């Protein structure tokens, strides 16, 4: 599994020249007003943060970046295919299914029924992809945040690994689903992960730190 890190470019700040001390004073007053306005804004609730999270994953470009990472996608595919003996005739829960690609892999490996759970608006594309691949009788896309299934499942799959392994904050949801829906002694994919850290030297990073 290849782990990559994103680095956003520093935002350009518009510099305006002022005359004498008045210009500096005006700038200080504006900064003070902005700080006061920020303090007056109400803090977001947990629900609002969740909605922002789901909105981010509604953007198809996010999923495009993940799927076109061939090392990452092939690793998930091979992990499913190497466990093909545990899948035929089984029921699978795909937690945070995204575009439904893992559910499609499981169906191709012989799983009988897939519950593809996705709370963001990308579930619409997932349902279309399932239909396009002729798997709508096997893969059921559920556009919900908290799922209630009619049965426990034999397998749970999930793309919970993000940048730096834990960035996507999906691990807690997977563990909750495992406790509630996975039959005892059954399969969780992936079941383990390793994180390797190495020191690097990056000129852009050094420039940004030196700037401040």
UniProtKB/TrEMBL annotation:
Region (Disordered): 1-42
Signal peptide segment: none
Domain of life of the source: Eukaryota
The name this protein goes by in its record: Protein arginine N-methyltransferase 6
Enzyme's top EC category: transferase
Taxonomic classification: Eukaryota, Metazoa, Chordata, Craniata, Vertebrata
Entry-linked CDD domains: AdoMet_MTases
Keyword S-adenosyl-L-methionine: yes
Keywords associated with the record: Methyltransferase, S-adenosyl-L-methionine, Transferase
């Amino acid at each position: 599994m290849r782990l990559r890190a994103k680095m956003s470019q520093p935002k350009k700040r518009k510099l305006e020249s002022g005359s004498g001390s008045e210009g500096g004073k005006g700038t200080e007053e504006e900064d003070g007003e902005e700080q006061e306005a920020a303090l007056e804004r109400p803090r977001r609730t947990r629900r609002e943060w969740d909605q922002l999270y789901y909105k981010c994953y509604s953007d198809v470009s996010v999923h495009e970046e993940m799927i076109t990472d061939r090392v990452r996608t092939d690793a998930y595919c091979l992990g499913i295919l190497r466990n093909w003996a545990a899948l035929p005739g089984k029921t699978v829960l795909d937690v945070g299914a995204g575009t439904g690609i893992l559910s499609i892999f499981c169906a191709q490996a012989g799983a009988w029924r897939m519950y593809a759970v996705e709370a963001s608006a990308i579930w619409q594309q997932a349902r279309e992809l399932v239909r396009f691949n002729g798997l709508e009788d096997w893969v059921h896309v559920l556009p919900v945040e908290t799922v209630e299934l009619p049965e426990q499942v034999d397998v749970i799959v999930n793309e919970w690994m993000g940048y730096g392994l834990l960035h996507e904050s999906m691990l807690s949801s997977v563990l909750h689903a495992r406790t509630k829906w996975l039959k005892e002694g059954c399969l969780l994919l992936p079941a383990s992960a390793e994180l390797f850290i190495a020191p690097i030297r990056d000129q852009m990073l050094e420039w940004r730190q030196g700037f401040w």
